[in-house]
Every structure is written in structure tokens, then in C-alpha cells.
Amino acid sequence: MMAVHRGVMTEQSFPAMSGSLVEPQPAVAPAPKFWRRTAPMLTAAALVAGLFGGVTGAVIASPDATPSAASSVSAQTVVNQSTVDWTSVASKVLPSVVQVNFANGVGSGVILSQDGQILTNNHVVASSGGQLTVKLNDGREVPATVVSTDPSSDLAVIKASGVSGLTPIKWADSDSVKVGDAVMAIGSPSGLQGTVTTGIVSALDRKVTVPGEGRRASSVSYQAIQTDASINPGNSGGALVNAAGELIGINSAIYSPASSSGEAGSVGIGFAIPSNTAKQIVGSLG
């Protein structure tokens, strides 16, 4: 969706491999592989195939960044998952998360304004050809248009048509996030709208590098929040929230030990663009 290593690491690239990573010599941490993909709409046949088939897929590599001081765990700030009322968190956040549909694909997004401004990943809208609809939590599906994009940060703002009174997401200060904090990911993996998964913040300031959209597009790198909350294709653009139901990140990439012949799936290593980064980009896109 790799242990935390201290010290500066050198940039390395590895070819796509199936199943596992091979550590090079001299011994350095292997570069993780990342998927940044939307998902096809899920069908009954796909569900059966997923139950009995292996998961493979092609991915690219990127090293860690130097961990920041914020990566250390503080027992006083970490929220114990067993004490969190996840039912209340889901009830609070679900109205602020949408499904983004295009052709036979799907992504996710978070509501920014009552009149339908929505934040998602650039790679979601780049795959759409400009033909988008948004499915709201109440079941309504409405047309949507692209307002602005920032490929360099993998973020985009779209606008749902003919809506009002929507519930905007509440922002959190991602700089206050600590390793071990309880989190919930919300989105539409494979079109399963309103899917929620929980976990913790696994690491901070994790450098993620993903391919650009299109053959000639440059790769995109950012410092991400790593989580073990299950994230799968279709979660792209959805919300990663804290125990208070506030946005700490935009789910954007996963690691998966897979080859180019199939779809990647969650192995508990997912990445989100921090909310402070996203909020700054949204301001410039407006």
C-alpha cells in the first residue's frame, strides 16, 4: 500500500519485478514500488477472480527521504485505535467524500465547498478525457468539470454541477500528525463507494515517486504520509482522516509487489499527500 531507515539515502531505481524486491550490493534499503492508479468498475466476475487469482502488476521505484524529527512516536500524542469511535468518524466524514466516475474507471474525491468544488488526484482526471460524473454519498450522480490541475503535485480541483448544501471536509494540520496516530481511509476502491478502512500512521516524510500521466510526462515526487489502512485502486483522491474526522491527507499511491501483467492490491503500505500540502496547492489552483 519497509522499515523506517535513519540517515540520508541515495536515489536508486530498480526494474519492475514480480513478487519481491532484491536488495542490491552493497547493502542499502531496497526502493519501494508504487502504484498510482484508478480502478475499473468492480463486477461480480472481478470479485470471483480476485478471490481465486494472484495479484500482479508493474510498478516503479523510489527511495525514502531522510525521516524528520516528527517521525518519532510520542506516547502522549498517539491515539489508541481501541478507544476511537470509528462509527462516528465514518458518519461524520462519508458525506464529504465522493466517487469520481469516468468511462469504465473510478476514483475518489473530497468536497471543498457547499456548491460542489471537489479535490482529487490529477491522475484521476487525467485518465478521464474530461468526461466526468460525481456520485455523492446520498446516491445522486451529477456531471462534473475540471476546474484546474497541478500535475507536479498530482492534485486537481473539479466542480460538480447543479448542487448545493454539500458538506465540506474539515482540514487538519498535517504537521501535527505523529507516527502511530489512528487513521481512517475513505473512498471507492473498484467502485465500492463509501468503503472505510482503519489503521495507523506508519511513517512520515516518506518520499514517493510515481510515473507521470502520458508517455512523455515527468514523474511526480512528494513527501507522503505512510499508512497501513487498506488503500486500493479507486481510492485515489479520497480522504485519509484522523480520529476526529479531519483531513490529514489525500490518498494517492500504494506499494504492491506486483508485475506489469495485472492490477496491484493493498499489502498495507499506502501513501497520502499531506493536507497542508494539498491545502496550499488548492489555494494556488483557485
Structural notes for this entry:
There is one protein chain. The protein has 286 residues and is mainly β. 12% of the residues lie in helices and 31% in strands. It is built from 4 helices and 15 strands. It has helices spanning 44-52, 86-93, 122-126, 275-285, and strands spanning 33-34, 39-40, 60-61, 97-102, 105-111, 117-120, 132-135, 141-150, 155-160, 182-187, 195-210, 220-227, 239-242, 247-254, 270-274. It has a 6-stranded antiparallel barrel with strand order 4-5-6-9-8-7. Strands 10-11-12-15-14-13 form a 6-stranded antiparallel barrel. Strands 1-3 form a two-stranded antiparallel ribbon. The longest helix has 11 residues, at 275-285. It comes from Lentzea atacamensis. Keywords: Hydrolase, Protease. It holds the Pfam family Trypsin_2. One of its GO terms (molecular function) is peptidase activity.
Q: What proportion of the residues form beta strands (DSSP E)? A: 25-35%
Shape, principal axes of CA atoms: globular
The N- and C-terminal alpha carbons lie at a distance of 31 Å
Share of residues in helices: 10-25%
> Largest beta sheet, briefly?
6 strands, antiparallel, barrel
Order of helices and strands: EEHEHEEEHEEEEEEEEEH
Alpha-carbon Rg, integer:
18 Å
Determine the mean pLDDT.
Answer: 76
Which segments are poorly predicted (pLDDT under 50) over 5 or more consecutive residues?
A: 1-30, 41-78
How many beta-strand elements?
A: 15
Determine the number of helices (DSSP H or I, runs of at least 4 residues).
Answer: 4
Task: Give the spatial strand order of the biggest sheet.
Answer: 4-5-6-9-8-7
Tell me the structural class: mainly beta
